[in-house]
Each structure stands twice: as structure tokens, then as C-alpha cells.
Amino acid sequence: MNWGWMILAMMAVFILLGIGLRSWLLRAFRIRHREWVDAPERLGLHGDPVWVPGRHGRRLYARYHLPHPGAPVVVMVHGWGANGSHLLFMVPRILEWGLNAVVFDARCHGRSEDDGFASLPRFAEDAEAVLADLRGRGWGNFILLGHSVGAGAALLAASRTPDLRAVISLAAFSHPEPVMDQWLRQRGIPVWPMGWFIKRAVEWFIGHRFDAIAPRTTIARIRVPVLLVHGLEDTVVPPWHGRVLARARPGTRLMGLLGVGHNDPEGFAAHGEAILRWLHAHGGCGGEMHPPESSHAAGTR
Question: What positions does the domain Serine aminopeptidase S33 occupy (predicted)?
């Protein structure tokens, strides 16, 4: 038996399997719908469209709403398969409170350029690119706000960004594993053993171990106030994820929203006043925020 030829044949098989799995993952996680769902002008917003230089020479599309010179800037990170337009609903209220706001499209999303694939670490890199662009324009005092995967990315970016005031997480998962397991079951793929190999392939593909980028890991390294907001009717990322995150960083506020699901902009918007009041009280922005006289705290528990 020629062991040399056998080893070469086995290596060829593994290479072909790797190429096939990579191609399947690219198709499975490709972002199919990239149109903006809302127009800023419909909400009375007239911010500046900006192309931000990102990693690997890719450009990110952003809308800068900066009417308050010197005031903190809320940089918002959308979720998987969404884009900056999905967070526009929060901008008018943020501006009304005397803050500035920025929305942007992560790579492979919305109007931003492609870069092969998207991932939570790449979302974080894109948020950091927007922060760097704002610093270059003379802005500082940032607040990161993210939804779903964007919330996990905001927590990851915040764990390594010094000049933040606060972080607001909407519907973050605590660890990618249970989210991936749910995704596998929905497609009829056994979690063991097939799912285990797929998850390890995803880690290899994105270049990061799940444990290292998991929000329950990164939140413990954040040194500014963190607000965890979670819809109590969320079936995509159930509320127990929020409780896990809160335990991972003692003293973190967890705000549960009655009647709110996961992809529920109207539900989150209904509690916008409560979120901004927390930021006013705990985010180090008390002297720079100006609550409207008509504002009132929304009911939460």
C-alpha cells in the first residue's frame, strides 16, 4: 500500500470538503434583502450621507445627524440582515433630547460595500470605523447602541474602546452557540454531530472562537455604564439571555419590556423615553441632555 498517495488523497478530500462547506456557509448566511425600509426625510430627518472608510478598503454608508455641537453622539449598530434604516425610528427622539445620532450599514448590508461575508466581529470593526471617522471630524463622547447581533458587536467594540459614555444593548444574545443551535434545528440539521462541525467551521471561517466574542465574555470588560434592554415576548433571542448578561457584569441594569418582541421597532420605540431617561441618569450625559418637557417614562419592569 502506498501510504504517500493515501495521505495525499485524504488531504484532497478534506480540502474539497472545506471548500464545499465554505461555499455552503456563504450561501446560507448571505444577506438577501438590502434595501432601506424607511427614508430619513419621511421622519423629518435631514442628516448628511457619508461614506466611511472601513476595513479592507471597503466603504460603509452612514447618515450623520449632528445638529448639537459638542454634545455626545449615539452611534447605532443594526442587526443581522437589517441596515441603518431599521434604527431611524430612534433618531428623532435622540435629537430631541439634545444628543447627536449616527446610523450606518455594516459591510454586506444596506448600501455598504461587500466584503465576502458578515460576522459579529466585523460588525464591531465597522462600528469602530465609524467612531474613528467621527473622531477625525472632531467629535467625541460616544454612546454605542446596538440591536441583536449589532448589540453583541456594540458590547465587543465597547470592551476595547476607551472614550465611551455608555452602551445600550437591545435584545443581545449571551453566546452564539444557542442561537446557532436554534438556526440548525429550524433547518432540520442535527445539533450533534453535524451541527457541532458546522459551528466549528463557522469559528474557523470568521477567525474567532465563539467564547472569545460572546457578549457574556465581552460585557465583563466594559468600564462604562451598560443598559440591557430585552423584549419579554422575544422568541428569537429569549429573555433569559438578558439575565445571563446581567449576571456576567454585576450592577448592570436589565430593562424588560412588556409586549415587545425581537424585531419590533415599534415596541422598542414605545419605551424610548425610559431608555433615554436611564442614559440621562446613568450615562454621564446628565449635563448635556435636555429632556423635553412633554417626555414621560414608559412602563417597564
Answer: 73-186
